[in-house]
């Protein structure tokens, strides 16, 4: 039983700003295209592609749900690129991120996105892996491909318990 508890907060643009961007149409710059038949919500997040011969990847992650309370044992980061997740259906899920201090994750946060929200996790930002809740869910993922190692993991000596 972990003695370190982590509350879940609602995801907001402001709270997530140190970790990347919230992908949402709320407040986004948008304009009509295709003779007015389509509205473009433009340039919602900053895709970062670093390292050697980088290229953007578009994938679908079919995530299995995690139970709450959840014992978080590991966070990871991608030193060579950002990673965006957008749910393809109305899904309960968590976004777990942390600040970095001397190469270690600190001040961990757990956010619960609202319907219509996704995230773009900035390059080299500590985060938990994709964490659906309640039922399996598909997410569109945009991240970085190319040469080099783009994954660093940190295993906590004591897990953090994320409570509902
Ligand atoms: N490893 C991988 O592709 N997925 C993780 O990066 C994740 O953030 O879920
Ligand atoms: Ni990741």
Automatic annotation (TrEMBL):
It comes from the Bacteria. This is Ureidoglycolate lyase. The lineage of its organism: Bacteria, Pseudomonadati, Pseudomonadota, Alphaproteobacteria, Hyphomicrobiales. Keywords: Hydrolase, Lyase, Purine metabolism. Pathway: Nitrogen metabolism; (S)-allantoin degradation. Pfam families: Ureidogly_lyase (PF04115). GO terms for molecular function: ureidoglycolate hydrolase activity; ureidoglycolate lyase activity. GO terms for biological process: allantoin catabolic process; purine nucleobase catabolic process. Homodimer. Transmembrane segments: none annotated. It comes from Devosia chinhatensis. Belongs to the ureidoglycolate lyase family. Its EC number is 4.3.2.3. Its cofactor is Ni(2+). CDD domains: cupin_UAH.
């Amino acid at each position: 039983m972990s003695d370190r508890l982590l509350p879940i907060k609602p995801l907001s643009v402001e709270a997530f700003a140190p970790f990347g961007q919230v992908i949402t149409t709320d407040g986004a710059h948008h304009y009509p295209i295709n003779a007015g038949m389509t509205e473009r919500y433009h340039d919602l997040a900053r895709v970062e592609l670093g390292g050697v011969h980088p290229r953007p990847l578009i994938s679908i992650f079919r995530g299995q749900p995690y139970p709450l309370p959840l014992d978080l044992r590991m966070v990871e980061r991608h030193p060579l690129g950002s990673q965006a997740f957008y749910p393809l259906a109305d899904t309960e899920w968590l976004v777990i991120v942390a600040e970095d201090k001397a190469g270690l994750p600190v001040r961990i946060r757990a956010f619960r996105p609202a319907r219509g929200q996704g995230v773009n996790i900035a390059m080299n930002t500590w985060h938990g892996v994709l964490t659906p809740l309640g039922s399996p869910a598909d997410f569109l993922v945009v991240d970085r491909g190319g040469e080099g190692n783009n994954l660093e993991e940190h295993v906590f000596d004591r897990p953090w318990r994320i409570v509902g």
